[in-house]
Design brief:
By secondary structure, the protein is α/β, with parallel strands linked by helices. The chain is built from 15 helices and 15 strands. The strands form three sheets. An eight-stranded parallel sheet has the order 10-9-8-7-6-5-12-11. A four-stranded parallel sheet has the order 2-1-3-4. Strands 13-14-15 form a three-stranded antiparallel sheet.
Length: about 475
Amino acid sequence: MEHIVFLTGRLAQPSLERVLAGIDAAPFTWEVREIGLQVAALMTAEMIRRRVALPVQADRIIVPGRCRGDVEALSQHFGLPVQRGPEELKDLPRFFNREAKPVDLNEYEVAIFAEIVDAPRLSVAEIIERARRYAADGANVIDLGGLPETRFDHLAESVQALKAEGFQVSVDSVDTDELLRGGHAGADYLLSLTLDTLWLADEVPATPVLIPRHPADEASLHEAVSLMQHRGRPFLADAILDPIPFGLAGSIVRYHRLRERFPEAPIMMGIGNVTELTEADTTGINAVLFGLCAELDVAAVLTTQVSQHARRAVREADWARRIMHAASRNRSLPKGLSDALMTVHAKHPFPDTPEEIAQIAAQVRDPNFRVQVSAQGLHVYNRDGMRLGQGAFELWPQLHLEHDANHAFYMGVELAHAEIAWRLGKRYVQDQPLDWGCAVEQAAQDLDTWCAPGSTMATGRARAKPDGGNE
């Protein structure tokens, strides 16, 4: 059985030992070493090298999740794997469960067509800039959307410029002349052809996306699919996803019938009618829609970023397709694979109980304020005692920081973060930004950045102060 040594600080040691003792049927034995510092998050690789003597009788060393420094160099120093654990002690059981069942989220099967809906009104340079952003968020194909009664004079130039940049391109229009011009310019796909405009597929080499004459006319779509299959030509078939409450359920049934009728046909699903026209957070909508795509073996999705509430649709779609592909491939529920789509809430928002926070607070002997959040609210404590409230303005008068501007500013920011986390049900960690999943690009955290005085977390979540006094 594997033996693991866990390194920690004085304040976190009792909690760490309780969590480890509570892991049922753990496939390892363990030992906790407190290496002579109070706050576990102030641990550095260099400190570990100095304070942990060789040899270490273990198969692996796990250090706090916010330990700074090169753990790979530590592995070489100790001659055994050194690994960062989760940032929260309470997450250790799930950490080991995930470690035992690694899931690869690099794979996906659904191609994302990202539509530039106002392409005729943009310059070629603006189209290229938009395409680069979409591609960075995960788009595979850049879709140039035409506008009714709006000439797209620079369509061919736009297609050629995008192709020169290495993009796959689709042209999306109800104007057959625009579709022809786009196809002759080198577009890879044409959106969308009905049974009546299928002749366009013989004029240009672009792959057509087939749609019914009108959404309920399944027969015309099925006939177009049969014709393309008979010709041996590539295509995508789209049964048209209707918005709520104008036929969403019925359109899902149409997609299901399309899949039953043509088991091998590549299907496209345009999801903008649901993401754009429903005023709800799009992460959850995308999760459900891509779950349907996984079940129906959909080959491509057309998405848009028009409404402000849908402005991260491409990035969300990229995460959703990966998560749902992994769930489908592994025949498992889409749970525990990634928190990227958990943008508003957290699965385990309050890891510490009020009683556990009180135990930590009782050990504090300095004036610096610590902030933690439980289901009861915000806990703010230092050597002078505990304050409990449910909002920043409720707690602020109890801190008496009127004559300490730097500390007052710092605590104002932290209390605001803590209140947001408590009200939404998000995980709060002092001195760390709230985790908004894929809604916010996560830059690398600079753990050496100075925080204002009083920011040292008793539970091991603080950053070094500028004087280097991190031991």
